[in-house]
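Hey, I was hoping to borrow your eyes for a little while. For a while now I've been wondering how a particular protein folds. The fold is given in discrete form, as structure tokens running alongside the sequence. Could you read through the record and tell me how the tokens relate to the sequence? Take your time with it, there's no hurry, and the full record follows here:
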Amino acid sequence: MDNIKNKVISQFGKHAEKYVTSEIHAKGTDLHTLVEWLQPQKAELVLDIATGGGHVAKALSPHVSHVFATDLTRDMLANTARHLKKVSDNVSYIITDAENLPFLDESFDIVTCRIAAHHFPNPQDFIKEVARVLKSNGSFLLIDNVSPKEEHLAQFMNTLEALRDESHSRCLSVEEWQELFSKSNLKEVQSQLRKKTYTFPSWVERTANSQEQINRVNQYIFDANEAIQKYFNISCENAEIQSMQIDEWMVMCKKED
């Protein structure tokens, strides 16, 4: 298995409960928006890839026939199932690699993936698999952190993420995602690029394994030039980082024949 995938299993297994309760993951306004965009129907089948804390599965399950919530990390998925089974009785839980899905062609009306794809080492394989299992005219909704077009800003963002989280692979740019969609006959029909604010201390602590690692992340930000700190809106108080902003993209595609 790819080294990044092994780190994903280790990282998310250790921090599974944090992703169920995380404010950004559990209470993001995008959860309401994605239901509005997708307009799910009672007869439809949904695949939620890299479900994490299960927040998308929970949001969609009342509106559809069944949700297949998948994740690479067994402990993460088991923890999510314990929570979701209390409120959703039409969700199945399957240990699955996003880049090698164990489903037949054209099985799903809707495929979703939220705040996870930056952990996938081969995003081109992920998108090919999404297109393969999605029914003709089915909907694919992706939400993820994206890197700016400017190379120095993209490099800063991905280096920062890797310092904070050893399971990080790479945030793609919007343009890179669009190229992958085009190659797999996924037509973009709606999108939204927005700034997402992190409460810095809790964001760093969610994945850091030591105070030393947290210190490295802090120092990397302090060492960044003024233009970088301005772009990511680094906010400090009493010489401590309080918050920062990154770019997040929400996009819905339709599978063309």
